[in-house]
Amino acid sequence: MKQIQIITLLVMGILISSCGEDYLDPTPVSSIGSNGFYKNEAEVQAAVVNIYDGLQLAVQREFAITEMRSDNTKTRSSEGDWAQFEDLNVKSTNSTVADYWAMFYNVIFRANTVLENLDAAGDSAPKFEGEAKFTRALSYFNLVRLFGDVPLIDKVIGPTDTEYFDRDSTADIYALIISDLQTAIQNLDNTYKGRASKVAAQALLAKVYLTLKNYGDAQDLCEDVIGTSGIALAPTFRDVFYTERNSEILFAIEYVNDIADNSQDFSLEFTQNGRVRGLNYATPELITAFNNYGGAARTSTSLIYDDTSTAPAIPDPLQDYRCGKFVSNSTANQQNGNDWIVLRLADVLLMHVEAILAGGDVTSSSSAIASFKKVRDRAGLPTGSNITKEDLLNERRVELAFENHRFFDLVRLGVAEQVLSDFATANGIVFTTSDLLLPIPEREIGVSFGKLTQNPGY
């Protein structure tokens, strides 16, 4: 990882599982146990770095269970398990869903391991606590929004700790997320963009509060982020993605070209050379949205025409367009170095508008218009004298396309059922309200001693 020392084989020996194993399996992969390992600050620091290594793996297929379950993206050829996402027909045996669950619980395990060994961290203990709690909160925020009630595991557990195998209420999960992020805000500074920071924790907590309809606290946090020294929109939209660690980035998961353990392959999958000849391709509906609301700079950066011939002057919804934000830049194809952006300022500026809307349909607040205008100005587009919820949804869609926000935006703003139902009808597929949650992976139910139950509709 950029700016982070690559972890040694000795440190890797403390892990309980690889990303593909069930999260309930606590067996170490080597004879080096965590009880005897964490003796000083350097060793705890290595465990902190290990959390980010886990995130590198965990987010690589997130596009499938977010963007491809919305009206934004699809596969190029509608083949295999990937087509379950675009068809809103995800099975409990889907391996991508199972791996996502296991990977994020593995990140939670790594964070819990750090939190249980802070006594060895010396003066760095508060910072390491903030990083561990930020990453644990991020993991649980993703899981609770995608699966609903999930097991709350706030310590390193063993195979006999079956009381942790139950599903806990979303209220309890959100209480832990909020507490973790409040600690992270208190303990962190803004040194890093590829590691947890105060400003990233503030932005994430603001999004949590928006999800819970706590608009006042969300607005305050957004304004804190917007006013933070050194945080500013990148000069051009393209700079956001092709000048890494720029002023707009609050938190990104960092990768390096051509180093297998620190590279990603989603950039390759977003092309016709990827598996099933292309994943995360723009739907006709997304292409139309760019034509209506995108502006030239955002459209040309976001969409790449998939033909070798000259692209149409105006993107054609009947043609294939792939994501242009994370173009493969590796000599080894599957070992790309494009960072995955989790939080950036444009998202927060639009969250600020959402907080001021406070569940309403329109606002003429000068503060909301000022934030909206910053995003629109960079796109070369005018801003009116008021902002509707529909304006906000359209702006978020084209500004943040392919960045895994659309599905969560639809749910949070209360329009998911209508939008996805209309999308399904137009595309000859079936949508039911149970599709708003993913199935609990069948293999996890199988190893939970009957504790885990399935979501309705699966």
TrEMBL record:
It is found in: Cell outer membrane. It comes from the Bacteria. InterPro entries: SusD-like_N, SusD_RagB_dom, TPR-like_helical_dom_sf. GO terms for cellular component: cell outer membrane. Residues 318-458 form the RagB/SusD domain. Keywords: Cell outer membrane, Membrane, Signal. Its main location: membrane. Pfam families: SusD-like_3 (PF14322), SusD_RagB (PF07980). Residues 22-210 form the SusD-like N-terminal domain. Gene3D superfamilies: 1.25.40.390. Belongs to the SusD family. This is SusD family protein. It comes from Lutibacter maritimus. The lineage of its organism: Bacteria, Pseudomonadati, Bacteroidota, Flavobacteriia, Flavobacteriales.
